[in-house]
């Protein structure tokens, strides 16, 4: 299935986010080899150049590195990955809190709601 | 590339020509077999059928030649043909050569049909032998035959490429191209006839020679020269229409 | 390297100017969307690129050569309508392409036919409209050309085939080749494109990277198109 993208943001940024998500969640383990640009572009149904751009940004951030002949690999630096994971989580929390504020709940209220809301167990 | 184009040209056209000419020969044979009783209905019917087929053969050959060019180079197939890595010259030549071959085959099949029907075995043999017996003084005979064959070939090809040019010119218009092609045919033929009439009117008498007279007077050199001149004129006319067709297909291509 | 270059390219049909002084430079390894409403000159431009039309003025060059026999060998063109002979079978067309184009990959074509469930022994005449378009697309994409010109490749096919076509364009990607897709179904192709060219009444009104448009204007190309070409 082709990946779906928001229409109003650059695709390469969204690709970067998706791949980052796969890295921090462990789908692409630390040190593991990433799929080739060709395969990933086909899976996502995106232009290979756009995907390259996303991967280059991840390289620049140190989360991915390229071996000349064998392709791209996730960094082995678990601290860096943990850091990225936390940054991602913080972004989501900020977004969540903003939304709660729009509803009318402040941080305290939000925390209480989280603790008292029953967890919906996945089936 | 030209060879490949011709290969596909033959493949496309043989599908219709081969059965057509085969049918003609078969019916001629049937007619022949029935000819022992000339007043019987089957014989008369097959006679009629053969006559129709002979007339049809030429007409169908002509129509198929035109249709092949029009459909393949000016119709939607043109999107395929004109994007092939071949030159416009090759496109035109492939069609022209194959059409010429079919025209000659058609003539041959017609002759054969008539021969099958009309001649007894003895007459048939004599007919074939007569070809080997056209005799003139040795060298002249060979040259004469070559010149005649060349003129016939050049005339057939010039005629066909003239028709191609009429169709190619119809691209100047967007609609009713078949009618426009026919229009160009009428116009150019008329103009050519007027020109011919003017030339004949004003040209000095001795240029409009007569090959027979020259033969009679044993003016062989003049006879050959005349034939060669005729050949060159026919070839030049053919070249003119070829160039016209080429120009239209290369520079004024307008596929709908 | 530049795969396509046009300078002042103009085409007039009588009094109508279909393309007006188009200046364009396309690098190799790009997937370009040529977008515009019907009659904006997209097909005219593509025809000029493969020699089906000659310019009224200006020029267009493919890999630095004017359209001719040599460029036709490296350009693969998919026209909007079918161009098949009535009598040929699918496999005859495959042989035909293999015969004339050195860069044609017959094995690849046969694979694609299997994937799209088209019987090579079928008479082309008997195929449905959608199947004919698939065959035409397969023949075009099975070539290893330097420039692919696709005129409305996804318009007449079902969504599953549409996906297949876009996936084929992606997997065919080659840094030395470029693809120009002329379409008005922008939302479907947007994420496959590198750059887009907006053509309005024969003139280029925009030529930009897809991501730059999204970055700077905060809208998708599809949305921008609707704005620019509002009725």
Which short descriptors sum up this protein?
heterotrimer, B: about 260 residues, mainly alpha, about 80% helix, C: about 230 residues, 3-stranded antiparallel beta sheet, about 35% helix
Write up this protein.
- The complex is a heterotrimer of chains A (123), B (256) and C (231).
- Chain A is 58% helix and 7% strand.
- With 123 residues, chain A is mainly alpha-helical.
- A two-stranded antiparallel ribbon of chain A has the order 1-2.
- In chain A, helix 1 (11-24) packs across helix 3 and helix 1 (11-24) packs across helix 4 (78-103).
- With 256 residues, chain B is mainly alpha-helical.
- Chain B has helices at 2-34, 41-74, 78-81, 88-118, 121-131, 138-169, 177-202, 211-216, 220-251.
- Chain B is globular and about 60 Å long.
- By secondary structure, chain C is of the alpha/beta class.
- Chain C contains nine helices and nine strands.
- Chain C has helices spanning 42-49, 69-72, 90-100, 106-115, 129-141, 159-171, 186-189, 210-217, 221-228, and strands at residues 2-13, 16-27, 31-35, 57-62, 75-78, 147-151, 178-183, 195-200, 203-209.
- In chain C, the strands form two sheets. Chain C has a six-stranded mixed β-sheet, with helices on both faces.
- In chain C, helix 6 (159-171) links the parallel strand 6 and strand 7 (178-183).
- Chain C is globular.
- Chains A and C meet through helix 1, helix 2 and helix 3 of A and helix 6 and helix 8 of C.
């Amino acid at each position: 299935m082709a990946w779906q993208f928001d229409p109003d943001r650059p695709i390469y940024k969204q690709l970067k986010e998706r791949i980052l998500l796969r890295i921090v969640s462990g789908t692409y383990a630390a040190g593991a080899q990433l799929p080739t640009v060709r395969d990933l572009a086909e899976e996502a149904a995106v232009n290979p150049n756009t995907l390259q751009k996303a991967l280059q940004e991840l390289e620049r951030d140190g989360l991915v590195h390229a071996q000349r002949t064998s392709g791209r690999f996730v960094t082995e630096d678990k601290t860096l990955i943990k850091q990225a994971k936390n940054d991602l989580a913080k972004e989501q929390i900020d977004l969540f809190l903003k939304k709660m504020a729009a509803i009318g709940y402040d941080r305290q209220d939000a925390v209480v709601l989280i603790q008292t809301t029953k967890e919906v167990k996945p089936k | 590339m030209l060879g490949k184009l011709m290969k596909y040209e033959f493949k496309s056209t043989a599908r219709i020509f081969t059965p057509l000419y085969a049918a003609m020969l078969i019916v001629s044979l049937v007619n022949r077999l029935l000819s022992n009783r000339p007043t019987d209905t089957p014989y008369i019917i097959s006679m009629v059928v053969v006559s129709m087929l002979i007339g049809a053969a030429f007409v169908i050959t002509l129509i198929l030649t035109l249709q092949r060019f029009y459909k393949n180079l000016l119709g939607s197939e043109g999107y395929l043909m004109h994007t092939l890595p071949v030159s416009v010259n090759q496109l035109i030549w492939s069609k022209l050569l194959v059409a010429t071959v079919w025209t000659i085959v058609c003539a041959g099949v017609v002759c054969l049909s008539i021969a099958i029907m009309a001649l007894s075995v003895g007459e048939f043999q004599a007919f074939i032998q007569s070809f080997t017996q056209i005799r003139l003084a040795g060298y002249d005979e060979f040259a004469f035959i070559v010149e005649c064959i060349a003129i016939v070939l050049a005339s057939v090809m010039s005629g066909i490429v003239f028709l191609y040019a009429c169709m190619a010119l119809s691209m100047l218009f967007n609609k009713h191209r078949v009618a426009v092609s026919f229009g160009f045919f009428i116009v150019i033929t008329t103009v050519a006839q007027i020109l011919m009439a003017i030339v004949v009117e004003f040209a000095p008498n001795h240029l409009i020679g007569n090959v027979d007279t020259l033969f009679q007077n044993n003016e062989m050199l003049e006879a050959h020269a005349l034939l060669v001149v005729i050949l060159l004129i026919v070839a030049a006319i053919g070249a003119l229409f070829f160039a016209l067709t080429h120009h239209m297909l290369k520079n004024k291509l307008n596929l709908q | 390297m530049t795969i396509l270059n046009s300078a002042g390219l103009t085409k007039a049909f009588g009094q109508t100017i279909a393309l007006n002084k188009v200046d364009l430079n396309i690098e190799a390894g790009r997937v370009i969307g040529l977008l515009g409403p019907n009659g904006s000159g997209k097909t005219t431009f593509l025809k000029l690129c493969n020699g089906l039309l000659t310019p009224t003025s200006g020029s267009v060059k493919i890999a630095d050569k004017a359209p001719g026999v040599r460029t036709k060998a490296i350009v693969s063109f998919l026209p909007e309508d079918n161009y098949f002979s009535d009598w040929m079978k699918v496999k005859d067309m495959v042989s035909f392409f293999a015969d004339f184009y050195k860069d044609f990959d017959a094995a690849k074509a046969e694979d694609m036919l299997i994937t799209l469930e088209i019987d090579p022994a079928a008479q082309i005449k008997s195929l449905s409209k959608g199947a004919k378009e698939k065959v035409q697309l397969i023949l075009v994409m099975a070539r290893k050309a330097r420039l692919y010109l696709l005129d409305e490749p996804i318009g007449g096919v079902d969504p599953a085939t549409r996906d297949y076509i876009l996936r084929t364009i992606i997997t065919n990607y080659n840094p030395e080749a470029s693809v120009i897709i002329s379409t008005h179904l922008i939302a479907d192709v947007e994420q496959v494109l590198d750059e887009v060219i907006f053509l309005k009444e024969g003139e280029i009104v925009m030529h930009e990277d897809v991501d730059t448009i999204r970055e700077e204007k905060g809208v998708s190309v599809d949305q921008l198109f609707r704005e620019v070409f509002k009725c």
